[in-house]
Amino acid sequence: METDNTSLVIKTIGAEYTLRPGTIDTESKEVVALHGNSNVKGIYYKFTIKRLQKSAKSLPEGAEAASQINSVSVEAVGTSFTYSQIKDEIHNKLYNKESGLVQEKLSKLLSRDNKKSKYTNIDEEILELIGEIEEDLSVFIKNRIDSTSGSYSIVVGTRAIKDFDKPMMTKLTFTDKAGLKAPGVWYEGEGKWKKLSSNTVYIANSALFNTVKTGEYAMLVFAAAPSDVTDEYSYSGDIKILMSKYDLRDVFGNLESFYPEDNVKVKEAILLYEKVANKEGTSHGLTISQKAEKYGLKSLVGVGGVTRDITRQEIALIIMKVYCEKTGVNIQSLVPKRYVYISDEKDVDGNLLKPVLLVLDLEVMTVGERYAFEPKKPVTRAELVESFVKILEITKEI
Q: Which superkingdom heads the taxonomic lineage of this protein's source (predicted)?
């Protein structure tokens, strides 16, 4: 794999695993220990996958599995046979003129009775026989390189490998259930399951994410139904959409209640931008003010700091930053496609006028009576969510 700079994809029912060059460290202490045994002539890697209905460890509070729980383990296996010896045995198992699998299946094909055959044409039978060869050969290889096969085994020793030197890409398919969906992992040696909230790509009912250790992986779904957001509430649809895609507990608290009519604080708006723009992994340990500076939102941290109510014109800036982040466009190159009239334009801060005009042009935010934008007015949580959902629909994120 390293020589050809290519990856190995292992496909199973409901899951795929992509081993990149360097995912398995062939110079790790576990492998070196096997090399130190004079009886070891070759080293192989045993990748074991199990599909479980239930994990031995409790899932995170409020979560249930939306996929099968996939258990992955890796072992370095030291054998008393060289690669050439094992290759010769496999070749003999396939092509021995008297007892080889190919000869066996060919004889079966040549002795077929067309009248009694369940197949409508010979091609179908050939495909089934090829499948039988693959299955029989797999069983042979497993038994030949298996430490549980007694005296027949050529295994000298094994070493468990728990850490990947480079992340393994994991793809899981899941059942579409209502709520926030996120990959969960329980790595070997760690005490509990944890949710992976960043760097996950969703394609239909599949999720792709990186794993750095062996263990158990599953798609988790968390309930997203605050008690104060009923189906009759006008913003309930947008709130549920955003909560099903992003973990808003990191922004607004535990969300047993959403408090949709509460005004949004500067801190909350910055954290929501961070989450939607997928920047959480780059800002660990930073204060809100430091994050604002890093994201180009330093202007929001002024009088009143990060605990004051954020204004409509400031939300316009954040929304356009999300748009630029998702599309790769520089805001300086954007211009409204139509004339946008604001009766209280004089009240908009000069450095925020362009974002305000752009959000109105995109119809992500609107003017009120007499075409007033009310730039200094606070924004409620429900209004904020509505605008974010609209911009994410435009950028095809939801």
A: Bacteria
